[in-house]
Amino acid sequence: MTSAGSLILAAHGSSRSSVPSDIALMLARRIASETAIKQVEAAFIDQAPQLAHGINHDPDAVCLPYFAASGGHVTDDIPQALAEAGFQGRLLPALGLSPEIPAIIARAILAGTPVCATNCRWQKL
């Protein structure tokens, strides 16, 4: 999906810290700026905006779980929340299951580039 439609990045979120949602929102903004996808939004399981409320109802929308694997959130919680919201689009496998991910991780390790160009609050100091 590179030229149209909309994307919902389904992430965990946290009731204790905004850091997980900050990272997901940053990724959603990058996806929006680097692709031709018309609408990109992040929604969460454990915080607002919650996946079960107020998400895009475009029937051509795609939901990408921003998770490393297919645990309970991906197999149970996300589909349930999407159903509650009336989502009619496609639910993709968890991002971490993409066959490209190991090569991306290897390149990042070899590059040794810091997570943030400047200090950011989730960067290990």
Task: Describe the protein in words.
The chain has 125 residues and is of the alpha/beta class. It has a single domain (6-95), classed as Rossmann fold (3-Layer(aba) Sandwich). It is built from three helices and four strands; from the N terminus they run βαββαβα. The protein has helices at residues 19-34, 72-85, 101-111, and strands at residues 6-11, 39-44, 62-65, 90-91. Strands 2-1-3-4 form a four-stranded parallel beta sheet, with helices on both faces. Helix 1 links the parallel strand 1 and strand 2 (39-44). The chain is globular and about 40 Å long. The model has no long low-confidence stretch (mean pLDDT 87).
Question: Which short descriptors sum up this protein?
Answer:
Rossmann fold, four-stranded parallel beta sheet, 33% helix, globular, alpha/beta, 4 strands, 125 residues, single chain
How is the topology of this model organized?
Layout: E1 6-11, H1 19-34, E2 39-44, E3 62-65, H2 72-85, E4 90-91, H3 101-111
Parallel strand pairs: 1-2, 1-3, 3-4
How many domains in all? 1
How many strands appear in the DSSP assignment? 4
The largest sheet has its strands arranged as 2-1-3-4
Give the second-level CATH assignment, the architecture.
Answer: 3-Layer(aba) Sandwich
Radius of gyration: 15 Å
Strand content: 5-15%
Tell me, briefly, the overall form.
globular
Looking at the structure, the CATH topology is Rossmann fold
Q: Helix- and strand-based class?
A: alpha/beta
Low-confidence stretches at least 5 residues in length (pLDDT < 50)?
A: none
What summary fits the major beta sheet? 4 strands, parallel
Tell me the span between the first and last alpha carbons. Answer: 36 Å
Helix content class: 25-40%
What top-tier CATH class fits best?
Alpha Beta
Number of discrete helical segments = 3
Please provide the ordered H/E string of secondary-structure elements.
Answer: EHEEHEH
Mean pLDDT: 87
